[in-house]
Structure formats: C-alpha cells, structure tokens
Here is the input.
Amino acid sequence: MSRLTVALLAGAIVLVGCGSGGTTSAASGGNYSAEVGSTDLYAKAPQRFQIGVFRSSDQGVQLLTSGAIDLQLTPFQGGPGTPLQGKAHYVGAPGTGADTGTPELTDPSAARGVYEFDGTFDTAGVWQADVGFDVDGTHQSLSTEFQVGAKPILPAPGERALPSKNLTMSSHVDPAAIDSRAQGGAPVPDPELHRDTIAAAIAAHRAALVLFSTPVYCRSQFCGPSTDALEQIAKTGPRNADYIHVEIYANYDKHQINHAAAQWLLRNNDLTEPWLYLIAPNGMIADRWGPLFDPSQVMAELRRVAG
Here is the structure.
C-alpha cells in the first residue's frame, strides 16, 4: 500500500521523517503533511504524479481538496535530472464532494482526493516534491521524497496486457471473492462488471477497462467510489468494450489474493491498489490510472481506443 492509503486508513496523518515520507508544517490548529499517492513511477515516459495533503489536529484529520496547488519536482539533493514545475490540479474520489475551485480543508467523509500533475521524469532515482498553497489565510510549503524507477514494475502503457482469467459470475467460488461487498448472503452488487475475463476480451479483440480494487477492504477509501464510477462508465460507455472489476482478495481473512490481481499487481510481496487499466483491441495497454482517475478523462480515452 502507498503511504497515502495508510494515512487515510488510520484516520490520522502518518508523520514520517526525512527520507521516508513527507515533511510537516506546524500551523495554528494543526500540522500539515504531504504524501505521494502515486506508485510505480518511472522515467522517460509520461506519468500522472498524484500527491495528497493533510492537516492533523486534536479534532482529527482533514484533507486539502479542490482547486490547484503549486508543485515543483526536483532531483533529490541536486542529483541529475531536469526539474518539473507547474500547477497540480485536484482529482477527487468519484462521487465525493465537487471541486469548488479553491483549495480548502474538508473532512474525509465530505470530500477526499489528490492533486495531479502530468510530466515526464528524465532520470531514475530519488526525487523531491515541493508543494505550496494558501488555505485559511496562511501559506503552507511542504516537501516529500519519492522514488522514480528506470522502468515500470507493474504492467504499463505500451506493454502487452496479461491475458488473465479473472473470476466471473460463472466461477464456482465464494461471491465475496468476486466482489468483497458480497458478504453474509448479499449478492454481487455489480454483476455486469463480472461477466468477462481479461483473457476473453483480448482474444476477441475488444477494448477493456479493468479496475483492480477491493471495495470493502481498501485502505484508502478510494476503491468503493472507483468501483461505483466504473459501473457508471459501463452504463454509458462504448458497447464494443468490456468493463471488468477484479476483486483483490480471494479470502481476506487468510490473506489470499486472487490470481488475476496477483498477476498484475503483486510484486516482491507488495501490492498497491486501486489501479485502472485501459486495454486496446490489439491487446496492448493503452493507459493506466492510480490511485485515482477522472471519469470524464477515462471515458474520452476509452472512446478513442475502442473506436
């Protein structure tokens, strides 16, 4: 899990020291912290860099949401590489509070999300993110370090999609292994997302939008809204595409991960989610989003790829 997801799970800011996470800024009423939400960043290809900002106080945790913040990405301690800078724009968890246009502090139950910046890192190594924003009449400056790899660890755009045979409504398994919300006799709430396999979509030369998430056990509070968003996209998206949700856990209590999720996301005994993948009709990965995505952007890309 990313540091961002751990912070949201705990309901408190994970304050970590230099070299392992975000620096904090003490301010009237609480401490601010910035945490990188993106995982599997790599050099020499366009990346969606996502970062979350939090304030912790005696009253709990609030998230910075809406608007845009200043962002600068530089090689750590003057290392090789070309700095990137610009505005990072808010991407909210689907279905949560709307973007008001100005950064503000909100309770996670009202709105939650990250700030996103599109750019290309020209070198691998340790990088530093510096953010600046005004909120509650004060200016805040925060920084955190993160790793950029020489190449992706997980399946990435431009690579051939893995022809996984994910569980479907036809699989003879506990329904909770198909969707973690199907517990205690409850039916799978989104059967239309569990009709097809990734392997079948590739074999049929159909575009596929594939979300790896666990709505019940997700540590970030992003998976449920993301799964709901995929369900909505499936209702209005191209009919010549398949829409697939892959539950992460075969059995959460026994820490058993579904085979398809492990194929795509489990590396070195570590798994991050949610991830949304767009697979083209030729079986190549056209794009991916994680942890959050803008449904309108995804729909536009899907229509372009599906043709």
